[in-house]
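FIELD: query
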Amino acid sequence: MRHGTKERSGPPRPPTPSDPPGAWTRYDRAAREGGGAGGLRAASWEERLAALDGTDRPLPLVALRCADRVEPVRERARALLREALDGAAPAEVVAVAGVALAAAGRRHGGWGRELVAERLAHARVREALLSAADPATRRFAHRTALDAGLLPAGRAAWAATWDPDRRVRAMCLAVVADAPDAREADLDALLASKWPDARAAAVDALGATGRGAAAERFLADRSRAVRTAAREAVRTSGGRPADWCRARCAEAERWPYAPLGLAECAERTDGDTALLRELTAHPTARVRASAVAGLRLLDPEGWRTVLPLLDDPSAAVVRETGKTLVENAHRVPVEALAARTAPGRSYLQRSHALRVLAESYRTEAFVELMRMLDDPHPTLRSRAALAASRRGWVADGTTPAAAAELLELLDRHAGLFARRAAWMRESLARARDRR
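FIELD: result
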């Protein structure tokens, strides 16, 4: 066997019960397309039918045969599967249900979906399906249980709070947070969720039920959607979101997103801009990042304040600074950006400085981008070449000496420019020969 290659020894092994449903459908399809398998995966329907009365018949494959294109195979498989599930443990039902639902889109696959829906009437099986590892199985179980009135409010609140699948949460949020008589305990659980959509729905419910004052602390939530919902809820209850955020900026280490929350409020004072500028020097990185993001919304000249923060040790602060500078790329001094693309700087800092240069569309920025073609980092070289090859640059505005330098760079790295190298060479040659 050659090094780095896998040697195949015999047919592939069937998936395990812990594998996702798609593994079983792929396993079955591969055998049918290859034509070399027997048993339940045989190309011949007579062999598949005979295998259903044999001893080697994994229930997931039987579930697939329930959607078989040949009626005798389908009918026999369905009778076997229904009989097997009557005495099966909940975990076995979950494994089979995932495969049956994966095959539900086939011409004869609807029967499997109906069988799974029937099993939801049993409490233990229902709980197992609601907690299945496969997202599609959980979605089906929650949707069917909700439609049938089989999902208690507490269980729906738990799913809306903790389920990792957004579609499952959305289904359950619709019956928990939107209910006019939503239980306080359920809303409290949603407010503590790590998922922004759950927290936002709960904050909306607070406002709709006249408890908007309880939403104030979410004006400084890390999620924009939650902050937006909180502002509406607080205003509905007669509160002033800006006043609350302004007060929390005095203890920003406890409320790091209060500066951004303040900037997002419509009612501002002249002192808010000065306050956010002051907070860009806060010792807590999250507060500095929040203040930079707030200045981007509040102060058209805020880029002058945040430009030095491209040197900040926090990646979050550098990212927010980069966003602010990109919006003002045509105004940021090119020399300040060029200094921060030097190889001795951090990759994050150099990357954001390059991004601002790329959006500047000034001749000086074009020159600096071309000089980055000699950069030791391959990703930065490629990004600089892509930005420099845009036709919006005024290459003819370079000095003759700079044009000669850039022509040498272009000759060394012409491969980075593909079809545009000839056009760039012509433009730079005109600038070099200009007297």
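FIELD: remark
Residues 340 and 350 are 6 Å apart (CA to CA).
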